[in-house]
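Usage

Read records sequentially. Each one opens with the input sequence:
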Amino acid sequence: MASLQEYLDKQDTLLLESLLQAYCDGREEMYHEVALTICRILARRKRNKPDVEESFRKMCALYLT
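and closes with the structure output:
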């Protein structure tokens, strides 16, 4: 059985971006570990993106305060 990382690595970049966008917009629910995994994959694919962990902390700070 493939791990979550392996499964998501095989998915198209546009699909991952749309899943993450839906999660951020509140249209889809997912475990935060899945969202972070998607962020890490996208960061690897697009090297000019900001640090995943820092971006996630900033997002959480906006929604939790």
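Summary fields computed downstream for this record:
- The radius of gyration is 12 Å.
- The CA atoms of residues 20 and 35 lie 6 Å apart.
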